[in-house]
Amino acid sequence: MISRLGPILLFAALIGQEVPAVSTRQVEAETALIQARLELAAAQRKLATLPQTDELRRLEAEATLRAARAEAAAVEIDAERSQLQRTAALEAARKSAALAEGDRRRMEIESEVRLNQAQNTLANTKLDVEAALAVAHKRAAKLAYGIKVEHPLNPLIDGTLHVSDRRIPFNGPVGDDLAKFVSDHIAFYNLQSEKEPIFIVIDASPGGSVMSGYQILRAMQTSKAPVYVVVKQYAASMAAVVTTLAERSFCYPSTVILHHQPSTAIQGNMTQLHEQLDWSAIWCGRINVEVAKRLGITLDEFVKQMYAATVTGDWKILGDEAVRRHWVTEVVEKIAEDSVDELSAAPRPAPVQIIRANSAGKKQIVLPILQPGDAWMIYDPENIYLAR
After folding, report:
1. Could you say which of 76, 105, 132 is where a domain stops?
2. Most-buried pick from 1, 158, 180, 234 (CB within 10 A)?
3. What is the model's pTM?
4. 3-state DSSP call for residue 325?
């Protein structure tokens, strides 16, 4: 633009005033100079702006790089956000499914509980009805039983022994518990009647403590109501003594009755052993003297007969022979249990049995500890009972 205006201005100046005549060559030279100067100035300006352009380009490149990086980071963040959103949605779906399953299971449990409650209510109602019916039947049975059961003063009727409800079960080893059980029942039945007989029924007993047996004998002998003993299977040792010393005793022809001498465990020096042995002889001798007296012989003769019958002194005989030897008063073929009106187990008064195995592996029943001065009168050929 400037190079073109230069000749025009110069020409205008020449027209408007007189100027000295200049040669065309000179004008061209000056014009060329001006043009050169203008181009130099433009080049200088362009050169001056060149570093700024490079810096600008560098900054623009950096800005572009940052923008690219930011965009990449944004894309990564968006991807992570999307992943988190998907994970959250999946977890929410799982929780929702778990809640739904929990609600379903809860409803099932509640239904089961309501069903069980209904069934229990029905079962309880049924049990209540059955219990009420059982009570009614039992009451009716008791009423009928009370009318039916008799207590004859002589229970042996036409060869049949009638055992009434005034019966006392006597089974297992003789100990303190059994002695108290039998004695208490004798006293109780005496309060009801002092005339009607009381029955001690021995299914099976190996005998036991002499002191406990002595307590039973005293309860029998001091009872105002007669106390009769009935043996069904066998009565040995102290149980046999109770049978023999009863006012009346009954057994089957094949019932086993066994008498022998008492035994005891003693320890100490020789003087102590003699003292304990003498005491046992005195204490147990009193009971054995009563037995021998009932048999109509002396105690020495009774002991002699024991060892004449068997080398161990354990003299056992059957019921019919026991009657002939006066060990039992009467033998019967039939025993009627008139008091059995329900199928409930009678309480077992014998002590709780402790079972141990000896060195040979054989099981033994541990007997309770005896009172001082007491002795065992128990039949134990198989070494089943272990004294302590």
Report:
1. 76
2. 234
3. 0.57
4. coil
72 & 172 share domain = no
Residue that finishes a domain, picked among 21, 54, 76 = 76
Residue 147 lies in a domain: no
Between CA 50 and CA 43 the distance in angstroms is 10
Same domain, 183 and 290: yes
Number of domains in the chain: 2
192 and 341, same domain (yes or no): yes
Residue 307's CATH number: 3.90.226.10
How many Å apart are CA 254 and CA 309, to the nearest integer? 18
315, two tokens: 């003299």
Provide the domain limits for residue 23. 2-76
Helical (H) or strand (E) element with 238: helix 238-244
pLDDT in tens, the chain (388 residues): 445 555 555 555 544 554 455 578 788 888 888 888 888 888 777 777 766 666 777 777 777 777 777 777 777 777 777 788 888 888 888 887 778 787 787 787 877 777 777 777 776 677 676 666 666 555 555 544 455 667 889 999 998 999 999 999 999 899 999 999 999 999 999 999 999 999 999 999 999 999 999 999 999 999 999 999 999 999 999 999 999 999 999 999 999 999 998 876 667 788 876 777 777 777 777 888 999 999 999 999 999 999 999 999 999 999 999 999 999 999 999 999 887 666 555 555 555 566 777 777 778 888 877 766 677 778 787 788 887 7
